[in-house]
Design a protein that fits this description.
Length: 344
């Protein structure tokens, strides 16, 4: 059974770390906005570490991770944002000390590396809740995100996920004056798209950013033997890099060729981010990108006869709202009732 860490209470100290990239140094405004909300809206006291706002070596970032886990006054860890080389800090972590001092860990994207490390120790962590993106959102907090974050941070209850009423995949340029003055441009929400058998499954969640899952599989140092994922539930989402449908297909094909994809009892696919500051796609092109990515996933599932409940367009990761799900924790997918529940 997964080990759920004890939860903080309002007034507790939480570590704010940058184990992937110290973007708070480059873009302090969204970071500081997120810190203010962490204090004002959630009653937590953020504690920064030497590498939180300073570009640092993997060893130094790992030292801050270890300091946060072993400090008895720190009751949870929230990351500032993702990055691109967090994989390099894992060799410097002390598995025994982390296992003996479990704490809720929140982050997306490059933080998939730490989520996998904690999964291997039997610990539950939380995919979502980054300071600069979810908490530092322009305008105001997204209510859908904020409620899931509250439940994940402070409770150990089952929580029913639901499709977003409105959403966006367009970010603001943090370098532009006035970027935080108004709400993001939102679009009408869409229902989840279901494929596979109409059955109920329950298992531990494993996955995260598809690009970082690919890193993990290539390095193959922190991936368990394939049979250890039997009965787990895979979840994947893609980033602002906007990987092509061909790239998505190749990663999933390789997961199937190593007899990993077939191990999972269910699959959740995050709503694809189809717009970025570098590629400002039109609505028509965005719709085509999303459809092509979905078909790439389905093509692999069909070819390898992976017939499990599969749900597309769940609000995980790089789009807004940014739901929080328990990586390594329990999820129930009901293919007949079309519901998804997670245990925080």
């Amino acid at each position: 059974m997964p080990l759920y860490p004890p939860k903080p209470q309002p007034g507790d100290q939480v570590a704010v770390l940058s184990p992937g990239a110290a973007l708070p140094e480059v873009f302090p405004a969204p970071y500081e906005l997120g810190l203010r909300r962490l204090q004002r809206d959630f009653g937590l006291r953020p504690v920064e570490y030497p590498t939180t706002r300073r570009w640092s070596s993997p060893r130094a970032r790992a030292a801050d991770v270890m300091a946060a886990f072993t400090d008895p006054e720190i009751k949870a860890i929230v990351t500032s944002i993702g990055g691109s080389d967090q994989l390099k800090i894992l060799r410097y972590l002390d598995a025994d000390l982390i296992r003996d001092n479990p704490k809720p860990f929140f982050g997306i994207s490059d933080n998939t590396n730490l989520h996998h490390y904690l999964f291997n120790l039997g610990l539950v962590s939380y995919y979502g809740g980054t300071v600069m993106t979810m908490l530092g959102r322009p305008g105001a907090l997204n209510d859908h995100s904020a409620y899931a974050f509250t439940m994940a941070m402070f409770t150990s209850e089952w929580y029913d996920l639901r499709p977003a009423d409105v959403y966006t995949d367009m970010e603001r340029d943090w370098a532009e004056p006035g970027w935080a003055s108004s709400e993001p441009e939102m679009m009408p929400g869409t229902e989840w798209i279901w494929h596979g058998p109409a059955e109920q499954v329950e298992g531990r969640l494993w996955g995260g950013s598809l690009e970082i899952v690919d890193f993990q599989l290539r390095a193959s140092r922190y991936v368990l033997p394939e049979e250890q994922y039997d009965g787990a539930v895979l979840f994947l989402e893609t980033s602002e890099e906007l990987p092509s449908s061909e790239h998505v297909w190749r990663i999933l094909m390789c997961m199937a060729e190593r007899d990993l994809l077939q191990r999972f009892a269910g699959i959740l696919i995050g709503r694809p981010k189809a717009w970025s500051l570098e590629r400002r796609h039109s609505p028509t092109r965005r719709a085509g990108y999303v459809a092509a990515q979905r078909e790439a996933v389905l093509e692999v599932l069909r070819e390898y006869h992976v017939e499990v409940p599969t749900v597309f367009d769940v609000d995980l990761g790089h789009t807004d709202p940014q739901l929080v799900v328990p990586h390594g924790g329990l999820v129930r997918i009901d293919g007949a009732e079309h519901t998804i529940s997670v245990r925080y």
